[in-house]
Design brief:
The N terminus is likely disordered. This protein has five helices and four strands, in the order H-E-H-E-H-H-E-H-E. The protein has a four-stranded mixed sheet, with helices on both faces. It is 40% helix and 16% strand. The protein folds into two domains: 26 residues, no CATH class; 100 residues, no CATH class. The chain is globular, with a radius of gyration of 19 Å. The chain is of the alpha+beta class.
Length: 132
């Protein structure tokens, strides 16, 4: 009896402070950054070109975002036009997990910061980047 109570307490502690007895624990870190490859046609948009004056034509154009969903779910929403960025909706081709997967998951504030840092880093490497 005492051992079972200890196991339950350890399980709650491991799940985090929001876990309640009898409830499934949500992961503590559930936010993600993601990168969507954009079609080269996005370069026809003057606004995109102005945001990327040092764009290297050998690199892809990308959209960088953050979400509380999985990157795959968020990409599907962009494609459907649900709370979508116009560039991601109109020009989104595919996710580029090699550019973001190792960061995920993370807390909300970290994801907010990482979205900006990732966009800056990719732009410095020559990618054409849109980050809303």
């Amino acid at each position: 009896m005492i051992v079972e109570a200890g196991r339950k307490a350890a399980k709650r502690a491991k799940a985090g402070p929001s876990a309640k007895p009898g409830k499934a624990a949500r992961p503590r870190h559930r936010h993600s950054v993601y990168v969507i490859e954009l079609s080269p046609e996005v370069l026809n948009e003057a606004k995109f070109r102005r945001a990327n004056p040092d764009y290297d034509v050998t690199k892809p154009c990308v959209y960088v975002g953050m979400t509380g969903l999985t990157p795959e779910q968020r990409f599907d929403n962009h494609r459907k036009g649900v709370k979508s960025n116009r560039f991601a909706h109109e020009y989104g081709l595919r996710l580029l997990p090699k550019l973001y997967a190792f960061y995920n998951p993370m807390p909300y504030r970290a994801a907010m910061d990482m979205e900006v840092e990732l966009a800056i880093g990719l732009r410095e490497e020559g990618y054409g980047v849109w980050q809303a």
